[in-house]
């Protein structure tokens, strides 16, 4: 009979016991009413005119159209006290009026009535609180029989202390401030509260059963408390263990970083030695090959036939190409060693400057070259100029066979809202399955006879973008052109580091 006393379900008959300002009720009352409105319950709020105005303002601030909800009958904000008979509270009359409101709400198409109000205003004088126990016990029976959701509000500093005790006795679920106590150990069923002296003698078994249930609830509460404390201690032990593991991992990580740093320093020194070797040991004999081939052409040219001149031309061309490869390799090495001079760079002006120089190499060639304005980033102006020199140079080269060549420089946004710059052309394009080879040194997707080049330019661009903390990628289709996308920081490194530290402070 009393199995519902130990149910995990929160009762639809709740009370709110609060103190402080009247507005302190809103953290519970506003969600209670908004949930009712959203789920097609007719919502009633009964309190003094001042509190009604306060609640209406709070609902409007949460996006509720008060006038519309009142017009359609889903919201009733009332200060009516007609339920008081000559200023005196009558529990039976109040229950009858409430049942009529519930039935009317259902007949109007609502799921039921969702009611809340200030009990000081509802009951009237302090003497009326003597009948609170009877009223709340009768009300609990209404909750069992009809679609009613209720929240009775008690201001602890305004209503009599006895009324607070009676509220605790008659509500299975209680808000203390904004904390919901789902299982109220003080609750007494209305069958016991409303028993008459005539029925008391025959209700001993009910009282005994209820007392057993209360003892079980207290024991369960203590057991849950003990389990929670044990879980807390276990959690603290796990946290200590995890902290020790994390500290050990950090020490191991620091050791590995130190080892890798030392290895990188050795590798860098080896790379510098290799670059020096390329610069001095390879370029000197190469210059000799170029010089002697020129002397051979000048001094012995008449002795060579057409075939001999072709061979000699190939020697010069390949020697010059090898020189370009060596210079490209050295340029890659210099980028890794160059200190970055960060400043705010007008990328639009930089691209315009590079574009003018490219046009001067072929002034007779007609091409549509559009550069968007307002492109800015933080970085090294000299290195970023090399980025545009390579990307625009590639676009100029690979549109050389187009009927209406077009090159565009601009910016867009990624999915996270970040700035992404691009250089787009409608030139030769390439198959995307070869895209992974695009930024490797000396990697080419077209033959040198079709389009000249060393294959070092895009590797240089990727290294420059990487040193700035950005990334670069490409999208292309054969015969439909290529678009290179890349990101760059939009603020100075010092400001970015301050932002990172601030985020870390907030998270920790």
Could you walk me through the main structural features you see in this protein, from its secondary elements to its overall organization?
The protein folds into 3 domains: 6-194, Rossmann fold (3-Layer(aba) Sandwich), CATH 3.40.50; 198-337; 340-508, Heat Shock Protein 90. The strands form 3 sheets. The protein has a 7-stranded mixed sheet, with helices on both faces. It has a 5-stranded mixed sheet with strand order 9-11-12-14-13. Strands 8-10 form a two-stranded antiparallel sheet. Residues 1-9 have low confidence and may be disordered. Helix 4 (91-107) packs parallel to helix 6 (132-145), helix 12 (347-361) packs across helix 13 and helix 13 runs antiparallel to helix 14 (457-467). The longest helix has 97 residues, at 204-300. The protein contains 15 helices and 14 strands. By secondary structure, the protein is of the alpha/beta class. A hairpin with a 2-residue loop joins strand 6 (173-176) and strand 7 (179-181).
Structural class: alpha/beta
Poorly predicted regions are 1-9
CATH superfamily of the largest domain: P-loop containing nucleotide triphosphate hydrolases
CATH top level class name of the largest domain: Alpha Beta
Question: Any guess at the CATH architecture of the largest domain?
Answer: 3-Layer(aba) Sandwich
In the CATH scheme, what's the topology name of the largest domain?
Rossmann fold
Alpha plus pi helix count: 15
How are strands sequenced across the largest beta sheet?
3-2-4-5-1-6-7
According to DSSP, the number of beta strands is 14
Number of domains: 3
Radius of gyration: 42 Å
Q: Mean pLDDT score, rounded?
A: 80
> What is the string of SSEs from the N terminus onward?
EHEHHEHEHHEHEEHHHHEHEEHEEHEEH
| Envelope shape | elongated
Biggest beta sheet attributes: 7 strands, mixed
Distance between the termini: 52 Å
Q: What share of residues are in beta strands? A: 15-25%
The residue fraction in helices comes out at 40-55%
